[in-house]
Protein backbone atom coordinates (compact mmCIF):
# COMPACT_ATOMS: atom_id res chain seq x y z
CA UNK A 1 0.00 0.00 0.00
CA UNK A 2 2.86 2.40 0.85
CA UNK A 3 4.53 1.78 -2.54
CA UNK A 4 1.32 2.70 -4.38
CA UNK A 5 1.10 6.00 -2.49
CA UNK A 6 4.72 6.70 -3.31
CA UNK A 7 4.05 6.22 -7.04
CA UNK A 8 0.94 8.40 -6.89
CA UNK A 9 3.05 11.31 -5.61
CA UNK A 10 6.25 10.75 -7.64
CA UNK A 11 4.86 9.97 -11.12
CA UNK A 12 3.39 13.50 -11.62
CA UNK A 13 6.82 14.96 -10.83
CA UNK A 14 8.36 13.04 -13.73
CA UNK A 15 5.73 14.29 -16.17
CA UNK A 16 6.47 17.98 -15.42
CA UNK A 17 8.96 19.54 -17.81
CA UNK A 18 10.13 23.05 -18.55
CA UNK A 19 8.08 24.59 -21.35
CA UNK A 20 10.87 26.75 -22.75
CA UNK A 21 14.46 27.84 -22.26
CA UNK A 22 16.18 31.09 -23.15
CA UNK A 23 19.69 31.05 -24.62
CA UNK A 24 20.85 34.20 -22.80
CA UNK A 25 18.84 35.75 -19.95
CA UNK A 26 21.15 38.74 -19.37
CA UNK A 27 22.71 40.96 -22.03
CA UNK A 28 24.81 44.13 -21.75
CA UNK A 29 25.15 46.48 -24.70
CA UNK A 30 27.71 49.32 -24.96
CA UNK A 31 27.68 51.99 -27.61
CA UNK A 32 27.93 55.70 -28.22
CA UNK A 33 24.92 57.88 -27.44
CA UNK A 34 25.16 59.22 -30.99
CA UNK A 35 24.37 55.75 -32.38
CA UNK A 36 20.65 55.79 -33.11
CA UNK A 37 19.91 52.16 -32.26
CA UNK A 38 21.86 49.46 -30.47
CA UNK A 39 20.53 45.99 -29.72
CA UNK A 40 21.22 42.42 -28.69
CA UNK A 41 19.26 39.26 -29.40
CA UNK A 42 18.71 35.80 -27.96
CA UNK A 43 16.36 32.89 -28.64
CA UNK A 44 13.48 31.27 -26.80
CA UNK A 45 13.58 27.50 -27.43
CA UNK A 46 10.68 25.10 -26.90
CA UNK A 47 9.89 21.50 -27.78
CA UNK A 48 6.09 21.54 -27.58
CA UNK A 49 3.26 23.79 -28.72
CA UNK A 50 3.06 26.84 -26.44
CA UNK A 51 1.38 30.20 -26.14
CA UNK A 52 3.66 33.03 -24.98
CA UNK A 53 3.09 36.64 -23.99
CA UNK A 54 5.41 39.18 -22.42
CA UNK A 55 5.35 42.29 -20.32
CA UNK A 56 8.09 44.73 -19.39
CA UNK A 57 8.27 44.52 -15.59
CA UNK A 58 11.23 46.89 -15.10
CA UNK A 59 12.28 49.87 -17.16
CA UNK A 60 14.85 52.33 -15.94
CA UNK A 61 16.48 54.69 -18.42
CA UNK A 62 16.78 58.39 -19.22
CA UNK A 63 13.38 59.84 -20.11
CA UNK A 64 14.67 60.78 -23.59
CA UNK A 65 15.41 57.14 -24.45
CA UNK A 66 13.08 54.74 -26.25
CA UNK A 67 13.12 50.95 -26.50
CA UNK A 68 11.74 48.25 -28.75
CA UNK A 69 11.41 44.47 -28.64
CA UNK A 70 11.17 41.98 -31.45
CA UNK A 71 9.39 38.74 -30.55
CA UNK A 72 9.25 37.26 -33.14
CA UNK A 73 8.59 40.44 -35.13
CA UNK A 74 9.33 43.98 -34.00
CA UNK A 75 6.57 45.65 -32.00
CA UNK A 76 5.98 49.42 -31.88
CA UNK A 77 8.48 51.50 -29.90
CA UNK A 78 7.88 51.52 -26.12
CA UNK A 79 5.47 48.54 -26.15
CA UNK A 80 5.09 47.18 -22.61
CA UNK A 81 2.90 44.10 -23.24
CA UNK A 82 1.79 41.86 -26.07
CA UNK A 83 -1.17 39.51 -26.39
CA UNK A 84 -0.41 35.78 -26.30
CA UNK A 85 1.10 34.32 -29.47
CA UNK A 86 0.86 30.60 -30.29
CA UNK A 87 3.99 28.78 -31.49
CA UNK A 88 4.19 25.25 -32.85
CA UNK A 89 6.54 22.84 -31.10
CA UNK A 90 10.23 22.26 -31.58
CA UNK A 91 11.48 25.69 -32.64
CA UNK A 92 13.61 28.65 -31.61
CA UNK A 93 11.96 32.05 -31.53
CA UNK A 94 13.90 35.26 -32.17
CA UNK A 95 13.89 37.68 -29.20
CA UNK A 96 15.65 41.05 -29.50
CA UNK A 97 15.86 44.20 -27.40
CA UNK A 98 16.69 47.63 -28.86
CA UNK A 99 17.70 50.86 -27.12
CA UNK A 100 17.27 54.22 -28.83
CA UNK A 101 19.32 56.72 -26.76
CA UNK A 102 18.46 59.75 -28.94
CA UNK A 103 21.91 61.35 -28.41
CA UNK A 104 21.53 61.21 -24.60
CA UNK A 105 24.27 59.42 -22.66
CA UNK A 106 23.22 57.17 -19.80
CA UNK A 107 22.32 53.69 -18.73
CA UNK A 108 19.13 51.77 -19.44
CA UNK A 109 17.65 48.63 -17.91
CA UNK A 110 14.78 46.58 -19.32
CA UNK A 111 13.46 43.38 -17.77
CA UNK A 112 10.95 41.37 -19.79
CA UNK A 113 8.83 38.68 -18.16
CA UNK A 114 7.81 35.91 -20.54
CA UNK A 115 4.66 34.00 -19.65
CA UNK A 116 3.93 30.63 -21.28
CA UNK A 117 0.59 28.84 -21.34
CA UNK A 118 -1.23 31.36 -19.14
CA UNK A 119 1.25 31.44 -16.26
CA UNK A 120 2.32 27.81 -16.27
CA UNK A 121 5.92 28.90 -16.87
CA UNK A 122 7.53 32.31 -16.25
CA UNK A 123 11.05 33.49 -17.04
CA UNK A 124 12.78 36.83 -17.49
CA UNK A 125 15.24 38.38 -19.94
CA UNK A 126 17.26 41.47 -19.01
CA UNK A 127 18.90 44.01 -21.30
CA UNK A 128 21.26 46.63 -19.83
CA UNK A 129 22.36 49.32 -22.27
CA UNK A 130 25.11 51.91 -21.84
CA UNK A 131 25.20 54.93 -24.16
CA UNK A 132 28.40 56.92 -23.81
CA UNK A 133 29.62 60.30 -25.02
CA UNK A 134 32.25 60.46 -27.71
CA UNK A 135 35.32 62.46 -26.70
CA UNK A 136 39.07 62.58 -27.31
CA UNK A 137 40.37 60.43 -24.45
CA UNK A 138 43.81 62.00 -24.28
CA UNK A 139 42.33 65.49 -24.22
CA UNK A 140 39.76 64.42 -21.65
CA UNK A 141 42.24 62.71 -19.34
CA UNK A 142 44.79 65.53 -19.57
CA UNK A 143 42.15 68.11 -18.72
CA UNK A 144 40.59 66.12 -15.86
CA UNK A 145 42.73 66.46 -12.77
CA UNK A 146 39.92 65.11 -10.62
CA UNK A 147 40.37 61.51 -11.78
CA UNK A 148 40.97 59.09 -8.91
CA UNK A 149 41.53 55.94 -11.00
CA UNK A 150 40.47 54.10 -14.17
CA UNK A 151 39.31 50.47 -14.26
CA UNK A 152 38.24 47.95 -16.86
CA UNK A 153 34.84 46.23 -16.69
CA UNK A 154 36.24 43.57 -14.36
CA UNK A 155 37.11 46.29 -11.85
CA UNK A 156 40.89 46.01 -12.30
CA UNK A 157 42.76 49.31 -12.27
CA UNK A 158 44.51 49.99 -15.55
CA UNK A 159 47.28 52.35 -16.55
CA UNK A 160 47.04 51.88 -20.33
CA UNK A 161 43.84 52.42 -22.28
CA UNK A 162 43.40 50.28 -25.39
CA UNK A 163 41.29 50.93 -28.47
CA UNK A 164 37.88 49.30 -28.70
CA UNK A 165 37.51 48.91 -24.94
CA UNK A 166 35.19 50.07 -22.21
CA UNK A 167 36.66 51.77 -19.13
CA UNK A 168 35.18 53.18 -15.96
CA UNK A 169 36.62 56.51 -14.81
CA UNK A 170 36.20 57.18 -11.08
CA UNK A 171 36.62 60.76 -9.91
CA UNK A 172 37.88 62.15 -6.59
CA UNK A 173 34.26 62.67 -5.48
CA UNK A 174 33.66 58.88 -6.08
CA UNK A 175 31.30 59.45 -9.01
CA UNK A 176 31.99 57.25 -12.02
CA UNK A 177 31.54 57.48 -15.78
CA UNK A 178 31.59 54.60 -18.28
CA UNK A 179 33.53 55.39 -21.47
CA UNK A 180 33.82 53.44 -24.70
CA UNK A 181 37.27 53.89 -26.26
CA UNK A 182 37.13 53.90 -30.06
CA UNK A 183 40.72 54.67 -31.03
Alpha-beta content class: mainly beta
Q: Name the poorly predicted regions.
A: 10-16
- What distance lies between the first and last C-alpha atoms, to the nearest angstrom? 75 Å
Tell me what portion of residues adopts beta-strand conformation. over 45%
> What is the string of helix and strand elements?
HEEEEEEEEEHEEE
Strands, count: 12
Number of DSSP helical runs: 2
Q: If you average the pLDDT, what whole number results?
A: 85
Account of the protein in words:
- The protein is mainly β and 183 residues long.
- Helices cover 11% and strands 49% of the residues.
- The protein contains two helices and twelve strands, in the order H-E-E-E-E-E-E-E-E-E-H-E-E-E.
- It has helices at 2-15, 137-143, and strands at residues 20-22, 26-32, 38-46, 50-60, 66-70, 85-87, 91-100, 106-116, 121-132, 147-151, 165-171, 176-181.
- Strands 2-9-8-4-6 form a five-stranded mixed sheet, with no helix packed on it. A four-stranded antiparallel sheet has the order 1-3-7-5, with no helix packed on it.
- The longest helix has 14 residues, at 2-15.
- The termini are far apart.
- Residues 10-16 have low confidence and may be disordered.
Amino acid sequence: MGIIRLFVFIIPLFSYSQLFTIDNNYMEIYNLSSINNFSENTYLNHSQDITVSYQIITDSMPSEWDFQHCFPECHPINTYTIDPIAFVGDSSIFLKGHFYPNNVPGEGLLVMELNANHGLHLDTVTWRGFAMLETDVAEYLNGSRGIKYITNLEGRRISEIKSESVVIITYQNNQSKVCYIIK
